[in-house]
Amino acid sequence: MGSIRPWRLLALADSDSAEALPNAERSPADVREHLDFTLALHHQLAPAADRSFCWSPYSVSSALGLAATATGGKTREQIVGALRAEPSGLLDLLGPAAELPAGSGEPPVLAVANTLWAYEDLPIEESYRVALEDWPGSSVRNAPFLADPERSRQLINADVAETTRELIPELLPEGSVQTRTVAALVNALYLKVSWREAFDTAETTDRPFHAPGGERAVPTMHATRTFGHAAAHGWQAVSLPAAGGVEAVVLLPDADLAAAEAGLGAAELGELLDSLEQRRIALSLPKFKVTGGAELTDSLAALGVHELFTPGADFSPLTSLPLRVSTAVHESVLDVDESGLEGAAATAMMMRLTAVVREPAPLRVEVDRPFLLLVRHRETGAIYFLSRVTRPS
Questions:
Q1: How many other C-beta atoms lie within 10 A of the C-beta of residue 381?
Q2: pLDDT of 260 above 90
């Protein structure tokens, strides 16, 4: 077989062991639902097809799962509908993926943090504190939101930067913590794993890459060995096993990526991943570093999540105070080279107080005839002036 054309890395998937490949028995409904959510939100988040982009379904799913656990009624229903999963089912998928076995060779590095940041005086339901404990790397921390919004932003950014090994130094931009912000749900993720068999750096050479706008030379890695491979639905898939049961799956379209990506569905992707088989391949693929960032509100709305961002949001499982999400932001970065891959992602949902006041229709008082005007000292009742007004001038 000839060299595989330059590729696009689109997904990271768990592998049970060094030799295992995904198959039908390892693709239950919750995995397909996760694929469906991933592709649905990807189609909403990704910029024009001629631009590189990266995001983390794990991080966004975690933040949404935390939000679903914190909400009730229609608000929760919409989040669960977008996720295609209840929080408990999502935890069954995300929980085991939060721990990687060391194995032999360089151990994998994985850090997951799920944090509720709250103003000190915000009343938090004990049942939510208990539910939060089920999430990997969970904690409740205080920030002086109402007293010092900027300090709160700095605290959250510093914590995310620490978890992500400084790959995401500033998740929250200026202005994202507002004067009435009282809480934030934040997920942070860091992953660094080496390939089970590294690429030889001496074999890396500049090779043509047929990018939108014209061909250009890029540093390209080469290896001829046994990889997992599948071809179906106009795509080729090549799996690169890494430490800790992680694998990178190259998804290479037969036709133009823009058209192929738009038409890729969960069923087709699931079948492609399930049909990977060991095959000897001469693989050529570029080194790369790609980043992505997005405000999630509009993209989540396209998936049916509306009420979360309105004064009608139901956060009663979290607190007795009326809250809504004011902004939801996401950042991600992925770096792939001869030794392996390093990636980080973070997602934050900022929550602010919502004033829910239904004012009655005003009593109309029209002063259109002679009247008296009394001016007094309210506390003592002493009257400073008493006037009759018959002809205002």
A1: 7
A2: no
